[in-house]
Predict the 3D structure of the following.
Amino acid sequence: MIDKYRHKGEQDMTSNVMIISHGAAFMTNALVNSLKKAGFYPSVVEPGIKHIGQQRKDTDIYLLYAGDFIFDSPDVLVYLKDICAEEEKPLCIVGYEKELTEIKAAVPTKYISREFKRPFDMKDLTSALVSLAEADAERRKGRHILLVDDDAAFLKMMQDWLSMKYNITSVRSGMQAITYIANHNPDLILLDYDMPITPGPQVMEMIRSEHSAAEIPIIFLTGKSDKESVMTVMALKPQGYLLKTMSKEEIVEAVDHFFETKKWKNAN
């Protein structure tokens, strides 16, 4: 029998907000305090590509607090536009009318989730970010991952780690996975490479042979990290692989990154 485990979990309100600002210490401090009270993890960075890039992977929402620097930083605006287009992350902008116009000349409005004209109401801005975070959490929860592994303990651990953000279904064998995808179309399959009876490579071959399932991304789960084993895994051309020895944070970040960019960062 398929061990189906679809766990909605609770709202994950731990969004990281990057406040991009220069020379507005009083207001940015007020923003930081307001966002902390609302359950966010805010950080303030200087408006430079290097500074933004250093914290990019840990950011869920971008908040550009405009100032005079806007008129001298077209590269930063283009960089923010590229990030939001690639990763589908919300961008909010705050500024005077002239500053907002300058921003929108470089960043198409479709990539701007909210804009606030100064002077603005701090409660309204915070409330808007809460709504964005909730919507993003719901968007993530709409994604469905099929876990395939014969190790019950590992399967349960992975369920616990990923179910706060994603809908999870788990099965204990390759044939159960084939049976499941005959009637379902998950957004991602995390597939154990070493399974008895029907090992991962054979399961992947069977999935790829099914027209309705051939395009489902497959990430192998493997406990072997030596170069030869990794090359053997990747020779089968999955979307990537995860080492079973990776931490919760590393695994969740890798899955998040895949859904955000459609690209896989393999473990080294």
